[in-house]
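G., the chain you wanted modeled:
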Amino acid sequence: MRNAVLLIIMSSVFVWAQTSPLSPEQRATFHGRQSEAVEPFRIVGNIYYVGARNIASYLITTPEGHIMIDTGTKEMHDVIRTNVEKLGFKLQDIKILLSGHAHFDHVQGHAAMKRLTGAKVMAIGEDARALEAGSDLSPLGDEGWEPVKVDRVLKDGDTVMLGGTTLRAVLTPGHTPGCTTWTTGVEEKRRPYSVVFQACGGPNAGVKLIGNSKFPSGNLFCRQGRTYQGRRNAASVVRSGRLHQTDFRDGSQFSEAGPRRAREGNSDTVSNFLRFRNCSPSPNCPAVV
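Predicted structure as tokens:
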């Protein structure tokens, strides 16, 4: 049986169009309505949604402890605590903290969660540096967070393993140079699924890509976008199985509807998709690179 592919998009809709540091009104929305509580629920297999109305946090449970991906804004700390406990799990069993990318709506709660649980923080390269600095070191240069020690600095392709669950880190520079897409495998009703946590689209709109010291991979990003443009259709099989985070904001159950929407695919398709999903030609790229 071929694996079905489930693509979970981790960024809030509001961030995709963000062109500069947030206005006071936008910031109030992030720390207010978007961080409000919703009911937690199981997505598929051992993967649960424990985040807020429109800012995600995921719990991956195992017999030897749990993995959390993203801690959201500082206002979400109590939301996440409550949601984890509502599902019948213990905060102290969270052993590993991961993130999609080092922007405040993904990692602002890392330091508090690490203190509460003693979990080890892991992140790729430049994003690891940003986490420890407590600053948004991406071209966006927006709101920061409490600095947090990174216990393991990852490289592209590294795996994180706990209790029989393996997550693979795929470097997909976009919103930040260290943006990390996570892949894993789960089983639902005896059917295997390849699950992808997609952490970024391309760079935030308006970010200069060529000759930008804050985005050293920008030149490569634009060149690859042209190289892979003709292959975008090959990725559509993965995108068709996506679950957008906005589907969660009213706490609706996903566990039945989502897998039915997922198309057939395999881990190679997932990997290839990730390699060129973020490399499509961007309006940030000049006509000739």
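The longest strand covers residues 180-188.

Shout if anything looks off.
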